[in-house]
Write a structure and sequence with these properties.
The complex is a heterodimer. Chain A has 16 helices and no strands. Chain A is mostly helical. Chain A has one domain: Hypothetical protein af1432 (Orthogonal Bundle), CATH 1.10.3210.10. The termini of chain A are far apart. Chain B is built from 3 helices and 10 strands, in the order βββββααβαββββ. The longest helix of chain B is centred in the last third of the chain and has 15 residues. The radius of gyration of chain B is 15 Å and the shape is globular. Chain B starts with a strand and ends with a strand. Classes of the chains: A mainly alpha, B alpha+beta.
């Protein structure tokens, strides 16, 4: 078993690129139900790099607009606030999440794509399950696997032992992480969220996204992140070659929300269609 | 040598014997590889879900998303390139499952059964397969040789 302590592990946070300050501010504003859209727009407006990226995407061939989009306000008129927010948060997390995560067998860009897809799924589920604020869940979806960024090196070192337990021992990947490393990627992610002072709601979604039934009282937001994640794993969106589908699904989550197997299929289909759209958006701006 | 990437809910056919068709990250989805050794044409489909009845509207714009609309499309496209049904070599990979005792999330299994059903109805034989389990698979079809190679967690096999 790995002899690393959680503190040693989290000290590695200093070695991973930090999320930009505006991203942190935006995440806090988005996850606070009391904040207004205007506050959110203001947060974006003063970030030049992100404004540039958002405008580049809006002016890309993909939209084929007859006039140029010159400001964040224009972009919001064209795409709506929710889309622009998604775009901004996706841009912000791209650098951090796009590096290859060899331990998990994730190619460059795969973890980011998975995260964007789960965030998109969270947003669909926000409407479907009537969970209120979509911004918060989008963010939770985007960051749910952030622990993998820190745990990656350790997983790479213990790769053979973890794979053996998963492939031959019938363990889930989470159980193998726990047995071999002493912690799981949701635990490490939640600890990181704490260090970054993210809201308790986001922290809980990260911590329990694989184990929603372990909460003393079920949390519909955690359920939504679990379902979005499970749908993406099933559809193979940004799944790692090491962990693959070796996670336990929690059927009780479907029961709690009165969702059928078919509903799950629809969610998978919608995420895939939406992801193709997002991909085009980003490709078109390059 | 060209490499043609087949995206999720998409398909490709080709008669370029130097080309390789590849699809990444098959979870519960299924990759169907079909090859005609005489006409030397081949194709690959990466479908997501068993039945188009889930959403006829989505099936119309994305027929390759579903087994029952994607498979006929793949075969028709191959016939147009000169493939002949009785010569076709068919290989299948994917259909993975999450760890789930109740089988509620068994899209992979239902995807595979839908394919067996459509093949049985049309008298098409599966010549090789690597399906099930909890792995994510990458599949390659070499159009010159018809070789199908499946890579997953810690192995690479020709089927």
């Amino acid at each position: 078993m790995s002899t690393l302590t959680m503190d040693e592990l989290v000290s590695r946070v200093e070695r991973i690129p930090r999320l930009p300050d505006t991203a942190m501010r935006l995440i806090r504003v988005v996850s606070d139900p009391r904040s207004s859209i205007q506050e959110i727009v203001t947060t974006i407006r003063y970030d030049q790099a992100v404004t540039t990226e958002v405008l580049r995407v809006c002016n890309s061939a993909y939209f084929g607009l007859s006039r140029r989009v010159n400001s964040i306000d224009d972009a919001i008129c064209l795409l709506g606030t929710a889309k622009v927010l998604q775009l901004v948060l996706s841009v912000h997390t791209q650098t951090l999440l796009s590096r290859p995560q060899e331990g998990y067998g994730l190619m460059p860009g795969a973890l980011w794509e998975h995260s964007v897809a789960v965030a998109t799924g969270c947003q669909l589920l926000t409407h479907r399950l009537e969970l209120g604020d979509a911004g918060l869940l989008f963010t939770a979806g985007l960051l749910h696997d952030i622990g993998k960024v820190i745990l990656n090196e350790t997983v790479a070192t213990e790769y053979a032992e973890i794979v053996k337990r998963v492939s031959e021992g019938g363990r889930s990947f989470l159980e193998a992480e726990q047995e071999v490393l002493g912690f799981t990627h949701p635990e490490v992610g939640a600890r990181l969220a704490e260090t970054w002072q993210l809201s308790e709601e986001i922290n809980r979604c990260i911590r329990y996204h694989h184990e929603p039934d372990d909460l003393p009282v079920p949390d519909p937001r955690v359920d939504a992140v679990h379902l979005a994640d499970v749908s993406c794993l099933l559809m193979g969106i940004g799944g790692g070659e090491t962990d693959g589908l070796a996670y336990r699904a929690r059927p009780a989550v479907l029961d709690r929300h009165g969702l059928s197997e078919k509903a799950l299929e629809s969610i998978g289909a919608e995420i895939t269609i939406e992801l193709k759209y997002v991909r085009k958006l980003f490709d078109a701006s390059r | 040598m060209g490499q043609l990437v087949v995206d999720i809910a998409d398909y490709a056919v080709s008669n370029d014997v130097d080309a390789t068709l590849i699809t990444y990250s098959l979870g519960s989805c299924i990759g169907v590889c079909v090859w005609d050794p005489v006409a030397r044409v081949g194709g690959m489909l990466h479908y997501m879900l068993p039945e188009s009845s889930l959403s006829p509207e989505k099936a119309k714009s994305n027929p390759a998303m579903f087994c029952d609309t994607g498979v006929p499309l793949l075969f028709r496209s191959l016939y147009e390139l000169g493939a002949v049904k009785k010569r076709l070599v068919v290989k299948v990979a994917g259909g993975s499952q999450l760890l789930d005792d109740k089988g509620t999330f068994n899209i992979g299994k239902r995807n595979y059964l839908a394919l067996r059903k459509i093949f049985w109805k049309n008298a098409i034989m599966i010549h090789g397969e690597d399906v099930g389990g909890s792995v994510s698979r990458t599949v390659r079809l070499h159009l010159g040789t018809g070789e199908v190679v499946v890579r997953s967690r810690n192995r690479e096999v020709a089927i």
